[in-house]
Amino acid sequence: MLSKLAYAAMTLAALGTASADTVLDEHFCQIYYTLDDGNCPVLRDTVRSEIRGEGTPTLELGDPTSQPALVFLHGWPDTSATWANQFAVFCGEDKEYFCVAPSITDFHPDVPLADPSDLSWIRQLEKYHAVIEELGLSGITLVSFDFGAIYGYHFVYKYPHLISRHVSMDIPMTPGSKDLAPGNVDFMYLPYYQQVNIYSYLAGDDKAMNLGINTVVGDPPCKACRIAPDAKIGAGARTGWGYYIFVKTEDPWTEDLSDIPYEQWEFDFIPSYPEDIPMLYLYSPSFLSPTFIDWIDQRGDGVSGHMLVPDADHWLSIRQPEIVNAKLAEWFSATNAHDGFNCDDKNPCDPLLMEGKYYYPYIEDEKFVRCSEHGKCYVRPCPDDEVWDRDLNTCV
């Protein structure tokens, strides 16, 4: 866990020994920062490039010892600089949050190539966890996009005690679907770009991967970026490893994630989703999932929600940063999930009122506290059309 003293020493060291980082130096402003304010160079100078946990490169801004944390998970074919527009608005000691954006394994050109044994979804989760553990973070807001959204669902399932709320972007999870069972996934029925990614990874063919990105995927922001450590051209074949896990039958990903048989899972990506963790789903027109939207609407927690981001392709936080940032700010304000405290404190949480019950301990009338099964209480406002009822101990 990072102490205040250790954080101060780390900051001073970073100021005196800043070294080149391709992702920060070449991707952050030039590729991913699309806010029309001209402020990126100044912002970039404040962002720290670190190596955390089990050798994971991160981009960080703010003080992890005193600020609530936003943890950002990027996707394919992207780097952790994906979140430049969000760092600008939410992150830093002059803003509300400490932010950390870890890289997916082998998605950073400046670090050594990972051992093949590290190329699994469960190892990716463990590496994210090691970053969060080193920084001493809890009650985090997890923001995940694209393949990072898959990792986000897995992380919430695996480590719910660390999460206060979850934003997922443009990759839904499908209730009731069993389409992703290892051994049942037909390679030829996968989206063509995924077939190309798997072939390129297995063949070690950078040119095939680059051709697929430039002719099939659309217009990814970092389509010309060198991303994998061993890439000779473009993103590199190595970045396709996550897609191979879909069709890999040896050591299936489902058994890594859970002992629950896949046919009993509630969703295609995870066995279940914690009832006490609110979710916001932002999506482009291409990734509308009516069944997922219906599931969010039926949660009934008063805070989970969804929004279509207009006039955007898949990379919605880059194409429409103002709209995305405004929605995030609105939802963060409404949920107030960083105002958390342990349920085993003397006051305010009664252990008899656990498992998602709402009640009023000692705070303002318009607020309520939910005591979760994971041992945290979170102050949340009543919905706009409701008020707190002291006698009923609920919003009405």
TrEMBL record:
Residues 1-20 form the signal peptide. Residues 70-325 form the AB hydrolase-1 domain. Keywords: Signal. This is AB hydrolase-1 domain-containing protein. PANTHER family: HYDROLASE, PUTATIVE (AFU_ORTHOLOGUE AFUA_2G14860)-RELATED, MONOACYLGLYCEROL LIPASE. InterPro entries: AB_hydrolase_1, AB_hydrolase_fold, AB_hydrolase_sf. GO terms for cellular component: membrane. Pfam families: Abhydrolase_6 (PF12697).
